Every structure is written in structure tokens, then in C-alpha cells.
């Protein structure tokens, strides 16, 4: 069966529409500034038809940046009718270290805050190629420390603080958790990293197989890693697959689709977490491509993906 025919039928329709509008997908746009504008425009258009949610309030703040670096914007989401102390979810957006922003995660952050009844803190971070590693993880860790320092005023129970991020956000979710472990930072009750970008080598079978799906294919991944690393070798905070010690990390949740370039590196990383004694839940979804639940939210497969994540977060917060 041809690779494209293996994509879940409902999830394939919006992907085909995207590829008609942007031949070759996002990575077909060589200019990174134009690519960012295109991605932002698409996400803005997707959100335009969804009315504001009065059940969640959001406020913008600024966290002190790493030493010698700019401050870090953070956005806090809280269920409007809630009182007292709630669980917290520290959220990191995706985008291959080169794309994306807080605004693009608005709908997901609002959904999680309302559905789970938690305070969501979504962090911004600097992008490559303008700012290579370790700018990204340092910014995220600064945002996490700000969340810890302001937990009382935000109404967050630090005994129920989880971290969430997909794709590049999944990389940073894991790397920030490593940094918290290594520097004595906040304790985290769950590390949820959907389809994380963890291996800079681009040598797995799936990294060579996924070349023309249109969403995060091989050429785009190689380019992103090159920009992200900026000519320096990858350490464990850049590429978590390179970590020699995964013990002591929070309980983990990882999911990935069978048609995602990150499939095999995520399978291998989840296995290593288990071998290191980290309680790990792993799911693989036949027919799902990278971030298919974002591009095809109405598909039954997407609904199943989200229901499984929500249930795992509820268990962690319970």
C-alpha cells in the first residue's frame, strides 16, 4: 500500500487541502520568515471560526530570562469560575525550534484549562536560527522557575504540576524536566510529550521513510536540527536521545503516529525511559501523521488521541 494511502481517511482530507494551498507543505517555503508568517496565518484562520471561551480567562506576564538574555513571555489560563488552588500544567509549544508561538497554542491551552480544571502556564522561547541551542531550553526552564515562584498568586498546587509539549515542545518538555532534575528545580507529576523531537542523527527507519507527507518531512527535520544546533554538537538538553541517564525523570506519557517521522526515535526513547525505571505510558496510532490531531481535529482518530491524553492528565492530577 502506498504511504499516503495508509493515512487515516478522515485525517487525510485536511492534509490534502493544506498541500493544495501550500504545495510541498510548510517546508516547501524556503524563507524562514515567510514560512513563519504562513504557519501563523494558517493557525489564525483555523481559530477564527471558534468563538471566545468565556469559561477561561487568560493573562499575559513576563518571566525573568536566563542571565544575559531577554525576558520570557508567559500566558496564564485559568477556569473563570474556579476558586482556590488548582493543579498546574506548564505548556511548551512546538514548531521544530524554528516556528510557532504562544498564540498558536491558545486553543489547546484553553481546552486543557477548561476540560481539566487546571491552571495552564504557556511559555514562549527564542527560535533558531537566530537563537540556537541552548536558548530554547534555558527560556523554558526560566518560565518553569517563574511558575514555581508565583504558584501562590496563580493558585497552583505545586504537588500537582505537570509539563506538556508536542514535537519540538516535546523535546523541550523532556529537556526542561531533565534540567529540573539536574538543578533541583520543581518536582513534576507528569511529563507529557506527544511525538517528541528527540534524535538529531536522522538515522532511524522512519526518519528516512517520511519524505513527502507534507507535515514535517525528512528535509525539513534535517534543516531544523542544523539551525537549532548552530554548528555545535548536540548534548542531552538539545537531543534527549543522547542522554546517558534518564533515571529520576517524572512519570512520562508519549504518543506518536505510524506515519510520523519521529515514530522510531520515540519508540526507542520510550523504551529507554522504561528501562531507566521511569513509569511510562506509550501509544502509537495507526494512520496518524505528525500533529494530525491538530490539522484534523474532527476526525475520530484525533478524538481518540485527545481522550487518551486527557485521561492520563486526569490520573496524574488525581
Which keywords apply here?
eight-stranded mixed β-sheet, about 40% helix, about 325 residues, Rossmann fold
**Quick one: how many beta strands?**
8
Specify the CATH homologous superfamily: Alpha/Beta hydrolase fold, catalytic domain
- The side-by-side strand order for the widest beta sheet comes to 1-2-4-3-5-6-7-8
Architecture (CATH level 2) name:
3-Layer(aba) Sandwich
What share of residues is helical? 40-55%
What's the pLDDT, averaged over the residues? 95
Using the coordinates shown, work out and report the CATH topology. Answer: Rossmann fold
Overall outline = globular
Low-confidence stretches: none
CATH class call: Alpha Beta
The chain-level structural class is alpha/beta
Return the domain count. 1
Portion in beta strands? 15-25%
Count of helical regions: 11
The Rg value, from CA coordinates, equals 18 Å
N to C succession of SSEs: HHEEEHEHHEHEHHEHEHH
Folded structure, characterized:
There is one protein chain. By secondary structure, the chain is of the alpha/beta class. The protein has one domain: Rossmann fold, CATH 3.40.50. Helices cover 40% and strands 19% of the residues. An eight-stranded mixed β-sheet has the order 1-2-4-3-5-6-7-8, with helices on both faces. β5, α6 (168-183) and β6 form a beta-alpha-beta unit. It is globular. The model has no long low-confidence stretch (mean pLDDT 95).
